[in-house]
Structure formats: structure tokens, C-alpha cells
Amino acid sequence: MKKRKIVVLGSGLVGATIAADLHRDFDVTAVDRNKKSLEKLKDSGIKTFVADLSDNGTLCRTISPFDIVVGALPGFMGYNMIRVAVEEKKDVVDISFCPEDPLQLDHLAREKSVTVVTDCGVAPGMGNIILGYYNNLMKVENYECYVGGLPFVREWPYEYKAVFSPVDVIEEYVRPARYIENGNLIVKEALSDPELMHFDNIGTLEAWNSDGLRSLIKTMKVPRMIEKTLRYPGCIEYLKVLRETGFFSTEPVEVDGAIIRPLDLTAKLLFPKWEMKPGEEDFTVMRIIIDGIKNGEGKRHVWNIFDKYDRLTGTLSMARTTGFTCNAAVNLLASEKYVEKGVSPPEYLGKNSENFNFIINYLRERNVIYNVDEK
In this predicted model, what pLDDT tens digit does every residue of 224-236 receive, in sequence order? Predict the structure, then answer.
């Protein structure tokens, strides 16, 4: 049987992991504007080429020969990439977490008869899939997601390393956090409502409001839903200082005759501090709490994952937990086990128990293991 042709747009730490994993079963090509990013794949047998995907003409030509497009681009490029791919009648699985609402492209995707799975990483992504599964089994009344990716070594001053684009990380610190309380939409500033939480494998972490519910706000009628980001204790204070001083601002300022955006300078300065160095190890921790009613009885389902850097392959945990979730969705599309046309946020994949179990098993086969405590 002829292998399906898949193109992975973006070959950063996560994109490269996606491409390498998909290469087991598909004809994979990886594309990035940075030749250095593609070098990590040079001995894998994966085809690679350099292209500036911010140019729509180049983007169209790049994706034209392929059956499925996988988006692993920075967030600010994600929405346009999805739109162009849909116009070109390509199925898409995307992890860019673009600031725009991908559901706005649903009508176009249905018109073009293509399937688009968005936000298909760890969170948003796997948390949505788990909620979608339970929402189809019982009346869910509460959903809580606590998630973070951190380095094992707490290196001063930030005690943090970024697997994604620094600009996308900073977005978490400035975008207002939305959550649902008593069926109502509540909006608070990012970094608000801190709380300390204990995790057996790592100790105490700090949780704060972040805008991670995304599509769940529209697709799920659950009275209470909230997501919080996890970091080492103490991070909120210095992040608020940077934010309130204006270092995360996108409003241009003049400095000795030069016009710059403070955000661009901050990202440039932070990247060397946040960049994962070769051999540095990270972990991903997530706890999902779902409360609801089934057959007249109260039920609680608590899902936990503690995933670590893979020393055997040298793969970062956040790349594994994000990339393999994405690839499970790619396999569902490629095998036509998921064929719904339009834009599908991850919770739609979780509705079907067979697809849900496929995703869980796909991750387990790659030693990304979610454990559940059901009461």
C-alpha cells in the first residue's frame, strides 16, 4: 500500500519530534525557514527543505503535493496556515495555538470538505480529549486542568525553559484568562488567583489562571471549567513586574530614534535564557479533574501524567507529550477513523470511545502514560 504523504510545517523541538515519529508509517517531509532547525533530521531519512512559510504563494506550493498538513509553526502564523491549507483542500492537524479562533474557519472547511483538527497538543489538546470523552458518558459539572512543562534544574533567574516560541510563551502572561463559573464566562488577568499544589514526583508547584480553555468555552456546556498553568513557586512576582513595566507590550516605543516593540526586544533577550541546551532534561506534569453525575451518582475522575525527558532518544518531554498527541490525531485522519468535515477541536475526537482509546494507546506505546483514579 502506498504511504500517505504528510508535510510537517515547522521543525522546532516539537515539529522535529512530530516528523520523526510519523516517519515510522508515512512518507514525511519537514519544512522550516531555518536550515539549522532541519539539520537534526538529516540522518533520519526524512525529506527536508527550506522555505519561508509566511509567504502564501510559497505555502501553497509547499503543501500542494501532500495528503495531510501538520502545523507546528509559531502561533502568529497558525491561523493563516490553516486558512490557506483549507483553501487548498488539505486535511490539517495543528498545534500552533494561534491567538485567533480557528472555529471561524469551520464553514470554509465544510465547504471545501476537509477535516481540520486544531489545538491538538497536551493542553490544549489532551485535556480537551479527556473532557470530550467523559462529556459523552455523563453529565459533567466540573473540569479543572493544571498543566506545566519545566526543566528539572531550577536555573536562576527564571527557573524555566521554553520548548515553544518565546513570543507564544509570553502570550500566556499577558492574554486575559477566561474560565467558566456557575455557567458564566469570567475574565481575569493572566497570572491571577495563585495557588500552591503538590505533585508526588516533583513537590510543590505554583498554579495561576491562564487562557487555556479556548474552544471548550464554546463547545462544552459545563457549569465550571478552568485551566491553570504550573510553574516553580515564585515566578508570578517577577513575571508581573516585567509585564507591568511594559516589557511584554506590543505598542512601539522610540529609543534614540529607533522604533521598537518592547515585546520583540524582550523575546530576543529571553530566548538565550530560556533555550533548552543539549542534554538538558525537562518534565511535563498535568492533572485533570472531572466531576459529574452518571446514573444518578456523583463521579470523580482524576487523570495525571508525569512525563520525563527521554534519555534514550534525547527527546524533550514537552515535545513528546505534545507531538505524540498530535500524531495520534494524524493517524486517525490517515486511517479514516475520524472523517468529520469542518474544524474539530480535540474534544470532538474524544467523543468516540474507540478513537479515545486509540489515542491513549498510541501515547502509551511511546511511554507517554496517563493514569486515572476513578471514584
Answer: 999 999 999 999 9
- Grid cell for residue 41: 533530521
Inter-residue contact 48 to 42 (CB < 8 Å)? yes
Query: pLDDT digits over 59-73, tens only?
Result: 999 999 999 999 999
Mapped onto helix, strand or coil, the DSSP state of residue 343 is: strand
CATH number of 5-123+318-374, picked from 3.40.30.10, 3.40.50.720, 3.30.565.10, 3.30.1300.10: 3.40.50.720
Kind and range of the H or E run holding 197 = strand 195-199
All structural domains of the chain with their residue ranges:
5-123+318-374, 126-308
pLDDT at 233: 96
For the record, the C-alpha cell of 183 comes out as 455557567
pLDDT computed for residue 1 by the predictor: 54
